[in-house]
Design brief:
The chain is of the alpha+beta class. 59% of the residues lie in helices and 23% in strands.
Amino acid sequence: MEGLYIAAAFVGLVVITVFKGVRVVPQGYKHIVQRLGKYYCTLTPGLNFIVPYIDSVTHRITTKDIVMDIPAQEVITQDNAVIVANAIAYINIVSPEKAVYGVEDYELAIQKLIQTALRAIIGEMALDSALSSRDMIKEKLKAGISDDISDWGITLKTVEIQDINPSKTMQASMEEQSAAERQRRAAVTRAEGAKQAAILEAEGRLEASLRDAKAKVVLAEASARSIESVTAAVKDNELPVTFLLGEKYIEAMRQLSESDNAKTIVLPADLLQAVKGMMDKVK
């Protein structure tokens, strides 16, 4: 019975030894092997053998692209505006031993490196430029950190700026500024409208006055020509004036008789003598 236990223990030890000495690495991964606490080798995909109890697999590293979400952070632009920016990075580990032994936590290190570079790049740009230059920020960001992470055996495939927007306080300030600008434009438009209306009204009055003056000149010229015509017709210096004055006198009496306040109007029988009498008084 005791021999059976010893045999079972031996078989179990053999199985465990074989299990610890054979390593199957799946495609897309590499395993770091340490021998007595020191880096020994890197196992590639497929069947691998290591020395049991001496060698040990300490890290299983993926060789597929890793997607890293860079958290949003507040960034101050060159003109002291606060904006919020985040990014997403795609990295690939080409040297697992460098990634494992070169930095304590390569994902955290890359995340902090990208955030720092992003703050530095946007800090050199004005607000308007930062909001409209995603491609330029992306290129600068990629060029700025690629060399740094290459020392860790990691390649930056690409980095994209997900969001880059003004902060909430900045958005409120921009909305207030936009509203104030719209109100200013509306006030200027109203003032321009009132100015144009006043100018057009004044021009209208000026045009009317000029036309009235021209009309009076035309009437005066017509009256002068009519007097000259009458004078030439009757060959008398006094009769033409008497005729015109009498005509005006009769027209005035007609208008007075047609008014609402008209009562009874009596015209002199000898109208010519009446007009001459008025002329004598004027003389």
